[in-house]
């Protein structure tokens, strides 16, 4: 029993029993209590008991033995039963206990109703069983009070049923809200562009939504078919759309992966053909082209792609390991050449700046010949050494070009001819200046020719 259920207790006293029934000298009990309508009301039902006599165990009210006319119920009385071989008090107490038991069961039901310890349906069934038991037997007790309490219980049970209905409607609304959320999310996932869909996580989420749907179906109250069907049809359609798009996507991807696998198998075969090549320069470029084609082929199925990449990389590693070993040997041989060229570079840089290239020309060319004769340097030093030599050569070439411009016979001849013409012009202008000192034009012309002459003489 729930701790919240605290039933009362009813007990019919002996004085109350004497007012509700009488007992004759043979132990026959007659109920005399009137109902609310004024007619006699049976007060205690005869039931089987270890204390009942064989006559009572027939289940039917027993007629008094002996003088039948004296033992019949009078007007307004109902025969209850017989308890022979006992006092009238004992007979009354026996039959009131039966009524009190029924009354206390009704009190227990009242406490259950007040505490809402059970559902309205179960409480109503208990009340109807008590009422049927009350109507089906003869009792010694306050039957009107019990009947009134059962009527009040009917009202309480109806109120509880109304509250349960309201709560059930609210629960149904909450269930429908949850279903709407499940369906809406499933529809959103199904509507996602297949190219942008994260299929693994989306598939997992769809499975979670389906499990959530099944869990909702198990929660009370259960939805009717009319309530659930619209949501289920939408949910089923979303799942079907998702599954269809998923199958189509993976079918296309399988075809793409198959093509990628075919292309990469060809690339692997070509890489393996080149792995033992000793023509390092062209083969290195060929491997670079193969790598570009590998990247352009795209990604295949992860496990297959990883296995193919391992084979492709293995072929490359064989070639580049062989090339690097040969280059290491060559670099070791070229190390001495590097030391020679380092010294020659220092001697070349010592000639700079080339202010008089004609004086160091022979020394310069001799050092370049020794540079060429020194041979190749390690691959890692080629760029550095060639860059340093180029700076020296550029500086020497610029110095020679400047010297040539200054000493070129044709340039000198052109310069002398121009100077002679300027000298003659200046002499003529000086003569004119003497003739007309006030002429500003002659002064200006003279000044310009002198400046021209000075510039021509120093230019070059």
Describe what this molecule looks like in 3D.
It is a single chain. The protein is an all-alpha fold and about 450 residues long. It folds into five domains: about 150 residues, no CATH class; about 90 residues; about 60 residues; about 80 residues; about 50 residues. Helices cover about 70% and strands about 5% of the residues. The protein has a three-stranded antiparallel beta sheet. Helix 4 packs antiparallel against helix 5. The longest helix has about 50 residues. The protein starts with 13 loop residues before the first helix and ends with a helix.
Summarize it.
This protein is an all-alpha fold.
List unreliable stretches of 5+ residues: 34-70
Overall tally of structural domains: 5
Number of helices: 12
Order of strands in the sheet with most strands: 1-2-3
Distance between the termini: 126 Å
Whole-angstrom Rg? 62 Å
Structural class: mainly alpha
User: What portion of the residues fall into strands of 2 or more residues?
Assistant: under 5%
Count of individual beta strands: 3
User: What is the helix fraction of residues, given as a range?
Assistant: over 70%
What is the 3D shape?
Answer: elongated
Chain-averaged pLDDT: 82
Major pleated sheet: 3 strands, antiparallel
The succession of helices and strands, N to C, reads HEEEHHHHHHHHHHH
Key terms:
12 helices, three-stranded antiparallel beta sheet, 5 domains, single chain, 3 strands
């Amino acid at each position: 029993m729930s701790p919240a259920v605290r039933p009362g207790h009813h007990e019919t006293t002996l004085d109350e029993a004497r007012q509700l029934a009488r007992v004759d000298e043979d132990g026959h009990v007659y109920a005399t209590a009137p109902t609310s309508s004024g007619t006699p009301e049976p007060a205690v039902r005869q039931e089987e008991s270890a204390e009942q006599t064989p006559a009572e165990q027939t289940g039917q009210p027993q007629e008094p033995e002996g003088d039948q006319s004296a033992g019949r119920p009078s007007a307004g009385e109902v025969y209850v039963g017989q308890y022979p071989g006992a006092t009238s008090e004992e007979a009354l107490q026996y039959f009131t206990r039966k009524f009190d038991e029924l009354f206390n069961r009704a009190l227990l039901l009242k406490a259950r109703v007040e505490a809402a310890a059970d559902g309205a349906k179960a409480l109503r069934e208990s009340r109807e069983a008590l009422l049927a038991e009350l109507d089906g037997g003869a009792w010694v007790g306050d039957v009107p009070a019990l009947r009134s309490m059962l009527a009040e219980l009917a009202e309480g049970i109806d109120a509880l049923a109304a509250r349960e209905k309201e709560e059930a409607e609210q629960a149904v609304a909450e269930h429908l809200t949850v279903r709407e959320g499940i369906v809406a999310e499933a529809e959103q996932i199904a509507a996602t562009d297949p190219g942008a869909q994260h299929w693994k996580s989306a598939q997992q989420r769809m499975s979670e939504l389906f499990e959530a749907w099944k869990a909702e179906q198990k929660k009370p109250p259960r939805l009717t078919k009319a309530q659930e069907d619209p949501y289920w049809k939408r949910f089923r359609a979303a799942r079907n759309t998702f599954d269809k798009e998923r199958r189509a996507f993976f079918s296309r991807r399988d075809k793409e992966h198959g093509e990628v696998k075919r292309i990469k198998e060809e690339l692997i075969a070509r890489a393996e053909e080149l792995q033992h090549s000793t023509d390092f320069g062209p083969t290195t470029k060929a491997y670079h082209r193969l790598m570009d084609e590998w990247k352009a082929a795209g990604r295949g199925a992860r496990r297959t792609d990883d296995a193919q990449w391992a084979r492709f990389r293995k072929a490359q590693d064989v070639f580049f390991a062989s090339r690097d070993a040969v280059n290491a040997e060559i670099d070791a041989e070229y190390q001495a050449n590097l030391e020679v060229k380092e010294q020659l570079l220092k001697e070349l840089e010592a000639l700079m700046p080339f202010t008089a290239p004609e004086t160091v020309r022979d020394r310069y060319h001799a050092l370049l010949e020794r540079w060429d004769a020194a041979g190749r340097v390690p691959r890692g030093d080629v760029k550095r050494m060639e860059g340093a030599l180029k700076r020296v050569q550029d500086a020497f070439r610029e110095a020679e070009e400047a010297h040539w411009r200054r000493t070129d016979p044709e340039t000198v001849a052109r310069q002398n001819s121009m100077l002679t013409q300027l000298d003659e012009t200046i002499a003529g202008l000086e003569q004119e200046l003497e003739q007309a000192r006030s002429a500003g034009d002659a002064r200006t012309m003279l000044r310009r020719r002198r400046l021209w002459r000075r510039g021509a003489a120093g230019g070059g």
